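Blackboard transcription, Thursday session:
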Amino acid sequence: MAHDMLDKMRLDGKVAVITGAASGIGAATAELFAAAGARVVGGDINDDGLAATKARVEDQGGECAVRRCNVTVRSDVAGLVDAALEQFGQVDVMCNIAGTMFPGRIEDLTDEEFDTGVDLNLKGVLYGCQEAIRAMRSGDGTPSGGSIINVSSGAIDRPYPGIGLYALTKAAVTMLTMTLAIEAGEYGIRVNAIAPGATITPFTTWRLHNADGSIDQEAYDAFIEEMKGMSPLGITGDPIDQAYMMLYLASDAARYVTGGIHRANGGQTMVW
Ligand SMILES: NC(=O)c1ccc[n+]([C@@H]2O[C@H](COP(=O)([O-])OP(=O)(O)OC[C@H]3O[C@@H](n4cnc5c(N)ncnc54)[C@H](O)[C@@H]3O)[C@@H](O)[C@H]2O)c1
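(Written on the board underneath:)
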């Protein structure tokens, strides 16, 4: 049995569509998936970041196509999935990673802010799921073998004052994931989510900027120490830590895994 252990974690022959591929967790996932043998199609609103991801994948001998995609626009997400079908003929893995922080107290939330948060962090994931199922479902009813992976957050595990909108969009992603895991199970499509703990990316600095837009280094260092202190391991995560979790869920090693919310968070949310 052990002989094919690592083979099961490879993605040879698979095509993976990844939103948020220009930066952080999405970029690391694109690189890791390509290194594991997948052909990767990355979407994002950051063209320069997308080009950089594509260059890094190709420098390492991988195959990567990129396309501008605003996940709040359904036709953009459909276009991204269609590009994968046109270029590579299939979609086996869909990673709905694009998202951002929405800080603010619940009592101050405006309708516009609420809609903006839901459009990106929830509807963007919904569109990705729906378009992936369209592409993954086989015409003849044979099990698809597809894997959809959504990105939630450690912020679902405990109320955290000041990021209520963010947390509620991410909590909704978990229910979307679990419900869809049941509905899409009949097509042989697995649906999981990851709920990352503090992972050092451009996202990490969302509340640590000076008035001129530069990073407040002192506040940043204090934030990192605070995040480390929340983990029983005394560390923060890197994008690759989330990418490894994504790789397992994308691979055939996880063929019996669906409807789960998987946490690479250094144990943070146990002691938060
Ligand atoms: N970094 C963390 O600590 C952490 C923790 C929990 C959850 N997350 C989640 O992980 C995901 C990735 O975050 P990250 O840390 O890699 O941040 P990041 O800022 O490095 O990457 C987010 C990417 O999403 C893209 N994006 C933003 N709006 C978009 C849109 N409308 N359409 C398409 N792309 C868009 C950005 O351009 C960026 O490339 C997010 O959903 C975030 O909420 C991150």
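Lecturer's comment: Strands lie at 15-19, 39-44, 63-68, 93-96, 147-151, 190-194, 261-262.
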